[in-house]
Design a protein that fits this description.
The complex is a heterodimer of chains A (328) and B (247).
Chain A (H helix, E strand, L loop, with lengths): L1 H27 L7 H34 L2 H8 L3 H11 L7 H14 L3 H14 L1 H10 L6 H23 L4 H4 L5 H6 L6 H33 L12 H15 L6 H7 L5 H10 L5 H10 L4 H24 L1
Helix pairs in contact in A: 2-5, 2-11, 4-6, 4-8, 5-6, 5-15, 6-8, 7-13, 8-14, 8-16, 11-15, 12-14, 12-16, 13-14, 14-16
Chain B lengths: L6 H4 L6 E2 L1 H23 L13 H18 L2 E2 L7 H19 L19 H4 L11 H7 L3 H9 L4 E9 L8 E8 L8 E8 L11 E11 L2 E11 L11
Parallel strand pairs in B: 5-7
Antiparallel strand pairs in B: 1-2, 3-4, 3-6, 4-5, 6-7
Helix pairs in contact in B: 2-3, 2-4, 6-7
Chain lengths: 328, 247
């Protein structure tokens, strides 16, 4: 029996090794002129990964440090605060974490596992990619010199906080074990409780990286495929329609899966759309997009993605409708 | 689903031994760290990121290297386990993009995306805030195609000399002595690329094909939203070190 298992395992190693070799040979002999769509897809896929992986790695580093060096009692004290205080505190604390949306997922997962209320962890996760200083600065640069400068910069910051808190409120009193998916097999191998602290740190770092990377790769591949085959001009037709323009820009943000630190420059380029639609793009995208959806499905229990999409979408839509009424 | 572990994996042993699953995870992280070092040392990060965000590459290389070294340094354990078949496939799948990008020849976005991307609008730097006063370039042209203020400034400078480098885009409707020249503008990574386009007139018929990189020297003439360049010289050039512009 053991011999059979070992043989099957050896065969799997060979197959995986063969697959990697095949990928290398195919990439090396790839003729970019023959398959322009594939060239487009590979470059966008690669760019999303090259940009997001360092943030995932940074998030995993912070997450591992929290696990190993911050005592659980610190979070237990925060958990004693009333939820009406926890959620705003969690949203505001996102200002201290200047990474894009991919990096905040492993940190929020670790915070919930360490004892922070899941609603507060989710609020932090959603707010951090919007309210951190780097994103505020990039939004300001993108809209510098425009009449809508303050609407966009303050509107994005405020709506980011509000929508994150609303989702946290919707998550409610859910327990960590109800929110988080169980640890994956690979993660379980990475750490043993009786190991020295430095070994546990690297175990958690590797576990988080390997766990998140697979979902990031899947999400980046889907986003690259959408960007390759769906022209951005598809949304132009609804630019002047009151509510549809908001929905269209949220849908586009979902499909494009841009980093929150650069999306303001892209939103600013949609000059046919008013500030409200651009705000919808800038608030919805960093909270829910295609690569994040893959990360959420891997990290959280079934239903979390659906709840988040509905809550973020509805709150963003209502809020930006008011912006549309006032500023157009 | 987890397969049964081999006997040596389940027996506790006092002497630490290499854990195959940890070594495998460390190997995958080493591959990814290698990719980021490769991008850094060869300058190929410019194929994926803008000059504003290429600092991410050394950051990624450093963190992934620390993670890989730390994992391999801590891979000896008293409870060594081999990865299950499923885990082996997962690790293999995570390694695929790193192998792909390491093996891929240097390629850039081609004309396929020209009609699928939104036109460049200059955003904060290129349009309203940046006066079109210096040496004219593609960013000015793109901004003029989107914003009235920039268009007025460019129109006032109609007839001035301009030098542009870009790729020849396909446009079946153009006369034989004209071509559409495009250049991608990337703010963060190639996924956010927007495109600036000009119509170049006075080109030797049949001299250039779609996907060729060319340098055009001539004079600029905004006509409505369209920007024309009357070419004085057009020459083929290799792909620039930085194929994408940053606003």
């Amino acid at each position: 029996m053991a011999q059979a298992v070992r043989t099957a395992r050896d065969r799997t190693w060979l197959l995986v090794g063969g697959m990697l070799l095949l990928v290398a040979v195919a990439a090396r002999t790839f003729d970019a002129q023959q398959l322009p769509w594939l060239r487009n897809l590979v470059i966008i896929f690669g760019s999303l990964l090259v940009e997001a992986m360092p943030f995932i790695a940074l998030g995993a580093l912070v997450s591992a440090a929290i696990e190993v060096f911050v005592p659980a009692s610190a979070f237990a004290k925060i958990a004693l605060l009333p939820r009406s205080l926890q959620l705003p505190a969690a949203a505001i604390s996102g200002m201290a974490f200047p990474v894009c949306e991919c990096g905040s997922v492993p940190v929020a997962r670790r915070l919930a596992r360490k004892g922070l209320a899941p609603s507060a962890a989710v609020t932090f996760m959603l707010a951090a990619p919007i309210v951190n200083p780097v994103v505020i600065a990039s939004t300001a640069v993108a809209y510098r010199g425009r009449d809508t400068f303050w609407v966009m910069v303050l509107g994005r910051f405020t709506l980011g906080l509000v929508v994150a808190m609303v989702v946290g409120w919707v998550i409610g009193a859910m327990r960590p074990q109800d929110l988080l998916r169980p640890r994956g097999d690979l993660e379980a191998h990475e750490v043993e409780d009786d190991e020295p602290r430095w070994r546990r740190f690297f175990g958690h770092l590797t576990g988080d990286l390997v766990f998140m990377a697979r979902f990031l790769i899947l999400g980046a591949l889907l986003a690259a495929a959408i960007q390759t085959f769906v022209p951005q001009s598809i949304v132009d037709r609804v630019a002047n329609l009151p509510i549809l323009s908001l929905v269209a820009m949220m849908a586009l943000a979902y499909l494009m899966s841009l980093c929150s630190e650069s999306d303001a420059f892209v939103a600013a380029s949609f000059v046919a759309f008013g500030p409200s639609a651009q705000l919808a793009f800038l608030v919805f995208g960093p909270m829910v997009d295609m690569k994040l959806s893959a990360l959420y499905v891997g990290t959280y229990s079934s239903g979390f993605l659906r709840t988040t999409v509905i809550a973020v979408g509805a709150t963003t839509l209502v809020a930006t409708m008011w912006v549309q009424v006032i500023w157009g | 689903m987890k397969t049964t572990l081999a006997p040596q994996a389940t027996e506790a042993s006092a002497a630490p031994r290499w854990s195959p699953v940890r070594v495998a995870a460390g190997g995958v992280l080493t591959l990814w760290a290698g990719l980021f070092w490769f991008l850094l040392l060869t300058g190929r990060s410019s194929l994926y990121l803008s000059s504003r965000t290429d600092w991410l590459v050394p950051m990624g290389a450093a963190i992934l290297t620390v993670a890989a070294v730390g994992r391999i340094a801590s891979a000896r354990t008293t409870h060594p386990e081999a990865p299950s078949r499923r885990e082996t496939w997962i690790l293999g799948a995570i390694a695929v993009p790193a192998v792909l990008l390491l093996a891929l020849p240097p390629i850039t976005l081609g004309t396929y995306s020209v009609d699928r991307r939104s036109s460049f609008a200059g955003s904060g730097i290129g349009a309203t805030a940046r006066a079109v006063t210096g040496e004219l370039d593609f960013v000015d042209v793109g901004a003029a195609q989107s914003f009235d203020a920039a268009l007025q400034q460019l129109t006032a400078r109609g007839g001035e000399p301009i030098t542009l480098e870009g790729i020849v885009a396909e446009d079946a409707g153009l006369p034989a002595d004209e071509l559409l020249l495009a250049r991608y503008i990337v703010t963060c990574c190639v996924a956010d690329a927007t495109v600036a386009r000009v119509r170049v007139v006075g080109v030797p018929p049949g001299a250039f094909a779609a996907e060729d990189w060319v340098r055009v020297e001539g004079r600029v003439y905004p006509v409505g939203r369209e920007v024309l360049v009357a070419a004085e010289t057009v020459e083929a050039i290799p792909v620039p070190d930085r194929p994408y512009l940053t606003p």
